[in-house]
Design a protein that fits this description.
Layout (H helix, E strand, L loop, with lengths): L9 H7 L36 H14 L8 H17 L2 E7 L13 E7 L5 E11 L10 H18 L6 E8 L7 H11 L5 E8 L13 E5 L4 H14 L15 E4 L8 H6 L4 E6 L16 H8 L2 H24 L6
Parallel strand pairs: 3-4, 3-5, 5-8, 6-7
Antiparallel strand pairs: 1-2, 2-4, 6-8
Helix pairs in contact: 2-4, 3-4, 4-9, 6-9
């Protein structure tokens, strides 16, 4: 079994933080239904997520406009990290910021220190097992606002954190936000390398959010879910059963939403979740668009709020797609929280 450590004081966090209980009025799903082969029937009793899609879209707009040129080492890059940490604290997480410096004498594209911002919500039964989800907040040098790449993933990951803060989980939850993705997945590489050196907790799953929300049901693109090949034999049956038997994909959007999700047996996109896959950790990547270059303004100055809305067909369509990402991520987290650890 490969363990990844929560290397910045998780023991202290676990000793001092109470875990929020499930929201009593969020509603529950009935236990009746089809038979179960992989997932426990008890998953049916978990509350539906109370997603504030209008609120997080508004936060996304504010974040994008307040932090242009979020390049590594820039003042707005630091502002972005502070905004993310503030959101996590307000949601009820223990928010921490890691600072890295390139090794002495080593060549690096990073001129100044880089950061990882992450939150911790301790689990009630298996706190040394972690379910994480990641997004990157830095921007490519060729962009200005980087609204879709990857402020969209930041927004999805933060709203997922806010919703899950109200749900009691067996395992520890960790939303992680990386700097320096655009210069070679640098922060996530440091994070995983230092984690491996300690080995005091195990990541059971990591979900990646990068370029999300331009997807079904608000857009013609499916919502792609890319599965890490190292755990395809485990992940594919779990996710297939989750979508077939537990998710109410048609709620609010009609029958066409049931066909929104396409599960791919390959992870061939390059973002921070890849560092966990390289460490033999199970990963899932959520994405709108099969390839990054399917988005016309990928790594271009035109990656703006206005263009995201234009390409999505309007703010309401973008909200629908973003909601689908958060909704499916929510149930993915709860599914793996309900399962025993299976990492090798």
């Amino acid at each position: 079994m490969r363990a990844l450590p929560l290397f910045l004081g998780l023991a202290l966090v676990l000793a001092g933080c109470a875990t929020p209980s499930a929201t009593p009025d969020a509603g529950t799903r009935p236990e009746e239904g089809p038979s179960y082969e992989v997932l426990p029937a008890s998953l049916s009793t978990m509350p539906e997520p109370a997603i504030d899609i209008g609120g997080i879209r508004g936060w996304w707009e504010q974040f994008v406009r307040a932090t242009p040129y979020r390049h590594v080492g820039s003042p707005t890059n630091e502002i972005a990290a502070d905004m993310i940490a503030a959101f996590l604290k307000e949601a009820g997480y223990e928010a921490r910021t890691l600072y890295y410096l390139p090794p002495n004498g080593a060549e690096s594209p990073v001129a100044q220190g880089i950061r990882t911002v992450y939150g911790v919500k301790p689990g009630t039964q298996n706190p040394d097992h972690v379910i994480g989800w990641v997004a990157h907040y830095d921007s490519n040098q060729a962009t200005i606002y980087a609204a879709y790449d990857d402020a969209s993933g930041v927004a999805a990951a933060l709203e997922l954190a806010r919703v899950l803060a109200k749900v009691e989980t067996n395992k520890t939850l960790m939303p992680i936000f990386f700097d320096a993705e655009e210069v070679g997945l640098v922060a996530s590489q440091y994070f995983v390398q230092q984690a491996l050196a300690r080995g005091d907790v195990t990541f059971d799953l990591v979900i990646g959010h990068d370029m999300t929300g331009i997807n079904c049901p608000g857009h013609e693109w499916p919502m792609y879910q890319m599965i890490g090949e190292n755990y395809l034999d485990v992940l594919k049956p779990v996710m297939s059963e989750l979508y077939e038997k537990f998710l109410k994909l048609d709620v609010g959007y009609g029958e066409e939403a049931k066909n929104c999700i396409v599960i791919l047996d390959v992870h061939d996109r390059n973002s921070d979740e890849r560092r966990f896959k390289e460490a033999d950790i199970p990963i899932i990547r959520m994405a709108g668009g099969r390839r990054a270059t399917d988005y016309p303004e990928y790594h271009k100055p035109g990656d703006t709020i206005e263009y995201v809305y234009e390409f999505s067909g309007g703010p309401e369509n973008y909200e629908k797609g973003l909601h689908m990402v958060i909704y499916t991520s929510y149930w993915s987290v709860l599914a793996f929280d309900a399962l025993p650890s299976y990492t090798r």
